[in-house]
Write a structure and sequence with these properties.
The protein is an alpha/beta fold. The protein has 21 helices and 21 strands. The protein is globular, with a radius of gyration of 25 Å.
């Protein structure tokens, strides 16, 4: 790497090397660095261009971060978030304030302690009840919250992302590729909980009831569910009074109305419709989609209230995806905030040996700072409107993201760094205002400072049984749960990893081998899986946990974790072998389409669920 190019890359937060999953230095190719700099409007195509860019004056910081009690030792008048003014130097209250053209973020130093609890990690779409239409819905979420607390002693529910999709078919199945992270997914609406359903005449209600798709399909049919619900909601819409949407909701509803007409990706629309300033959506359709968001807010609020009324000490925690669809509502409205031609992902590791490309555009760190982090603020605030907590998927993205230049494979990328202090300040301030807990998913190739900073701010990190090893010792032995971090949300697995039963049967190896995901022969992978299984069984023996029923045994082991939160999934409790998502696949595997093997009404009385719940509740002292 040329010294001048390396210096330019460092000045713009672009990594020229990094530590890989095996803790070895990996150098980034120069042409990758040049391509990523170009996405930040920095020309590094020739040595002369590099020297010109290095000589260009650096603009002053546009965002300043302080913590509660800090004195801003400058002169001048600062305009507070509430409209008041303060003469500097002074200590400022928490909030987003303005000093000239700069934003001053003042955040609490840390969040309050999180109560100890156990709970579920839910793939909401996988639930099926007598009331839901072909997949789980917000009504099922309320039922799960109430019955899990009252009958099983659960204290927390972590829900898969329920952010908004484009209102088109085929429906985007991945909850981690939403059209917008600011709004909710109407696919999860329970039609029969819409107030108008109970006011319409009997004939209309019968027409709506006849639209209900079956619940007994082998895999979830998102398109059939959306078509049925959309038609039913159209019938109810005619019997409702409507308010004119404003602000961000208006922008989102305008996008949805245009997507219905022109398709889900605004980059393919007619030129005039691609620009929010010149777009001409149907007013009636704008009103309809704004109304759907009102319904989502009502039903999400009811689910949260159900958790509170049942006495859950934590409540409902919603998952925030790392990004949005490149042609979705957020990039349409906030175009300048994204690096539109880049995708983010992850470098190669043990589970994804070719790296991962998530096909999501990243924030531009320079534009976030210029805008006082308002786009990020809006995203966090929108999730916490109906949540008791937020889980940040790939929380290391607050520090750095793996940018993949146009046309390159996932492994040909590099890290771009963000102002983590500012991102954490926004997260801390918004969570403090909402009284919410924050969990960071810090699995995979993550720098130690990420986890350390989370804990310093009173946030939780993540602990997964499969990965809890001492990597400083030879052979990386498993760490007993009583030595896990206390400030963590612990689980056996995650939605991207094998279920307990799938791990025991090496189903994850079989599927990945069948799909050609290994660079070498699969025999070595089977042998590695068998060694891991034997090590875990040996840990059970060391901990004195009976191993006659390994699914229950692993949960009894998890229950011993020091971590304040311990979670499992209904899939794990029920012995499901198929994992919800297989990274690196799309249609090759039924990602996000696998229903629970039992109906929601039967879940709470299933003896396997009862055994697992009893083990986890006992570990929390319940």
């Amino acid at each position: 790497m040329d010294d001048e190019l390396a210096a330019l890359a460092e000045a713009h937060g672009v990594a020229t090397h990094y530590e890989d999953a095996n803790q070895r230095r990996a150098d980034v190719d120069a042409d990758v660095v040049v391509a990523v700099l170009a996405q930040l409007d920095v020309d590094a195509s020739t040595p002369e261009a590099v020297r010109r860019a290095l000589a260009a004056p650096k603009p002053p910081p546009r965002t300043l971060v302080l913590h509660e009690g800090d004195v801003l030792d400058e002169t001048g008048t600062i305009r507070l978030e509430d409209g008041g003014e303060v003469e500097l130097p002074a200590a400022l209250p928490p909030g987003y304030h303005r000093l000239g053209d700069r934003t001053v973020i003042v955040a609490p130093r840390r969040l309050p302690a999180v109560p100890r609890a156990w709970g579920w990690m839910l793939q909401l779409y996988a639930m099926r009840s007598a009331e839901s239409w072909g997949m789980g819905d917000y009504g099922d979420l309320a039922t799960l919250a109430r019955r899990s607390a009252e009958e099983l002693g659960a204290g927390v529910l972590l829900v898969n992302p329920v952010q908004a999709i484009s209102p088109t078919t085929p429906v985007e199945r991945s909850p981690y590729s939403p059209s917008s992270r600011r709004y909710a997914n109407p696919l999860y609406l329970r039609v029969t909980d819409v107030p108008a359903y109970h006011r319409v005449d009997a004939e209309t209600r019968a027409r709506i009831d006849a639209l209900r798709p079956p619940n007994d399909t082998g895999l979830i049919d998102y398109d059939a569910v959306w078509r049925a619900k959309a038609e039913a909601l159209e019938l109810l819409w005619r019997h409702e009074e409507h308010r004119e949407p404003e602000g961000d909701l208006l922008d989102f509803a305008r996008f949805c109305a245009l997507a219905e007409e022109h398709g889900p990706d605004w980059r393919t629309w007619p030129a005039a419709q691609q620009d929010p300033a010149t777009a001409t959506p149907s007013h009636e359709r704008v009103m309809f989609h704004a109304w759907l968001q009102e319904l989502c807010e009502q039903q999400l609020a009811r689910a949260r209230d159900a958790a509170h009324d049942a006495g859950m000490p934590v409540g409902v925690v919603h998952d925030l995806p790392v990004g949005v669809h490149p042609g979705g509502a957020d990039t349409w409205a906030w175009r300048d905030a994204f690096a539109a031609d880049v995708t983010v992902g992850a470098p190669p590791d043990a589970f994804s040996q070719l790296g991962q490309d998530w096909n999501l555009p990243p924030w531009r760190p320079d534009r976030l700072a210029e805008q006082g982090y308002e786009p990020f603020r809006a995203v966090v605030r929108s999730v916490l409107r109906h949540a008791d907590g937020i889980r940040i998927d790939h929380v290391a993205g607050l520090w750095r993201l793996w940018w993949i230049p146009p046309g390159e494979p996932a492994k040909r990328g590099t890290y771009v760094h963000y102002d983590a202090e500012a991102m954490l300040a926004v997260l801390t301030l918004e969570a403090h205002r909402a009284g919410a807990v924050v969990v960071g998913e810090d699995l995979g190739t993550v720098e130690p400072k990420v986890t350390e900073s989370l804990h310093e701010h009173g946030m939780l990190s993540s602990a997964v049984l499969w990965f809890q090893r001492d990597y400083d010792l030879p052979d990386h032995p498993l760490v007993p749960p009583e030595k896990w971090r206390e400030s963590a949300m612990a689980s056996i697995s995650t939605h991207d990893l094998p279920t307990v039963a799938g791990f025991l049967a090496a189903e994850h190896v079989r599927v990945r081998a069948e799909l050609g995901q290994f660079e070498g022969p699969p025999e070595g992978e089977y042998e590695a899986a068998a060694r891991e299984r034997d090590e875990l069984v040996e840990l059970l023996k060391q901990e004195g946990v009976p191993a006659d029923d390994l699914v229950t045994a692993f949960h009894a082991l998890l229950a011993r974790a020091r971590s304040v939160l311990v979670l499992t999934s209904p899939q794990d409790a029920l012995g499901e072998t198929r994992q919800p998502n297989l990274p690196g696949t799309t249609d090759q595997y039924p990602n996000w389409r696998i229903p629970l093997p039992v109906a929601l009404a039967d879940l709470f009385d299933d003896p396997r669920v009862r055994r697992v719940a009893a083990a986890l509740a006992a570990g929390r002292g319940a």
